[in-house]
Amino acid sequence: MKADIGVIGLAVMGQNLILNMNDHGFKVLAYNRTTTKIDDFLNGPAKGTNIRGVYSLEELVQQLATPRKVMLMVRAGDVVDQFIEQLTPLLSMGDIIIDGGNSNFPDTSRRVEQLKAKGLKFIGTGVSGGEEGARFGPSIMPGGDPSAWASVKPIFQGIAAKANSGEPCCDWVGEGGAGHFVKMVHNGIEYGDMQLISEAYHFLHKGLGLSYPEMEAVFADWNKTELDSYLVDITTRILAYVDENGQPLLENILDAAGQKGTGKWTGINALDMGTPLTLITESVFARCLSSLKDERLEAERRFNKTITQVEGETQTWIEALRQALLASKIISYAQGFMLMRQASEEHNWGLNYGKVAMMWRGGCIIRSAFLDNIAEAYQQDSELSFLGTDAYFKAILDDCDQAWRNVAAKAIGIGLPMPCTTSALTFLDGYTCGRLPANMIQAQRDFFGAHTYERLDKARGEFFHTNWTGQGGATASTTYEV
Asked: Mean pLDDT, the chain, as a whole number?
């Protein structure tokens, strides 16, 4: 009997997605370039299942039902293009190639068009949830050739995580690279969330001097509030974990964070589109700074750096920190949705932000209790430019404002770095400031470079240049024709 789908790539994510598909009654073919991995998989995790292994791409294609569906679970970049090149002559018109890795969205857009010209369909699919999500239900974000969606929808929605309402955390995102773009933004928010939580942990541990059991209890309590989320939950469990010597394992983990590039891509795209993704970009730089371990140790010695203890009632500070974390977390999500909105307009994707939030309610790393509130906010106003102006989120930001400022000020005062917490606050201050000092920047630009400026007392789009020194002339740089 012909198989429903073939999966190429038997690393952790590929294996677990295959097992998930098998659990849901789909007939799956497994292939890997290193064929010993096929045997290991069939004789190991896949033993006793209906999963079949194939040992060549020709065999894979021959055993698939039409339209053939081949899913690549391989490293992003050239490897994806290599497999597409090998598969293309073997496939027939209308067959579908799916990229389930973390590809950069422009690559996906390019592949959609290249394969469409050859009569084939391409889907770039963001898959979030890590090893456990892939095995038992991830969040899936497909985009690309919309004519391919009907063929893969039963499989993707079948294996996806389910929200409390029973809805699958998977829906069509949009054309071109939309699916991988949304996954990229998901990962950017994930970077921000993780950094914010690590800053809260640092404040509790070094600022308030709490023990690991005490910090575990704090995060467990926080997870019963609006902060209820996957990342806060696993933080609680990490704080409780002890090694073979009975010591907190976290104390012996090197403080140098790794990254695979999706957070960096998010920041680069924000810069390209002029979107102020300050918190998420700061979280990427925080990881870069953490990697300078030896330099940091030397600088700590040279500056005789110490973090002083926070004075005052501990429970008051714990509650203030909870509010600061909650408010900052809202800004992290809000900035991510701002970037998606900008990209959707530039690429004509027509993203449905409420649906995106609903896809993230289960299975993915940034799943959080208030994603339902985000979905509701965009259902009420699909053109909402900033999540923080929605009534529900504005009320939280207003309520948390003073505590947030107290924590940020105290952290700076005692020398405890909280780059994302403070960045989130200054972003909101800037966004809600009707008169920023950018008028000085425009005057400076016009002074030294004749770059012109607009005036408050004139219509937008009308530009002026001043001869500031009496010697610079009246020609603006915008009129140069070289």
From this structure: 94
Question: Does the pLDDT of residue 75 top 80, yes or no?
Answer: yes
Phi, psi for 246 (deg, rounded to 5): 80, 10
Q: What is the pLDDT of residues 265-283, one digit of tens each?
A: 999 999 999 999 999 999 9
Rounded distance between C-alpha atoms, residue 220 and residue 62, angstroms: 52
Q: How far apart are CA 290 and CA 232, in angstroms?
A: 21
- In the set 190, 199, 226, 282, the catalytic residue is 190
d(CA 24, CA 19): 9
Q: Which amino acid is at 378?
A: Y
Which residues are paired to 300 by β-bridges?
A: none
216: annotated active-site residue: no
The band of 472, judged by pLDDT with boundaries at 50, 70 and 90, is: low
How far is it between the farthest Cα atoms of the chain?
A: 86
Active-site entry in 27, 37, 121, 183: 183
Q: Edge-to-edge, what's the strand order for the sheet holding 139-144?
A: 52-53, 28-31, 5-8, 69-72, 96-99, 121-128, 139-144, 174-175
pLDDT digits (tens, 9 = 90+) for 120-147: 999 999 999 989 999 999 999 999 999 9
Which residues lie closer than 8 Å to 140 by C-beta, 6 or more apart? 125, 126, 127, 128, 156, 157, 159, 160, 169, 170, 359, 363
Query: Considering only CA atoms, which of 81, 114, 113, 100 is closest in space to residue 152?
Result: 100
**Encoding tokens for residue 321?**
């920190």
Distance CA 222, CA 323 (A): 10
Q: 183 catalytic, yes or no? A: yes
Q: From 48, 56, 66, 49, select the one nearest 3 (Cα to Cα).
A: 66
For residues 264 and 281, give the distance between their C-alpha atoms in angstroms, rounded to a whole number.
7
Nearest C-alpha neighbor of 13 from the set 88, 92, 73, 91: 73
- pLDDT score at 477: 65
Is the pLDDT score of 480 beyond 50? no
| Measured distance CA(31)–CA(9) in Å, rounded | 6
Give the closest residue to 20 by CA, choosing from 138, 165, 173, 121.
138
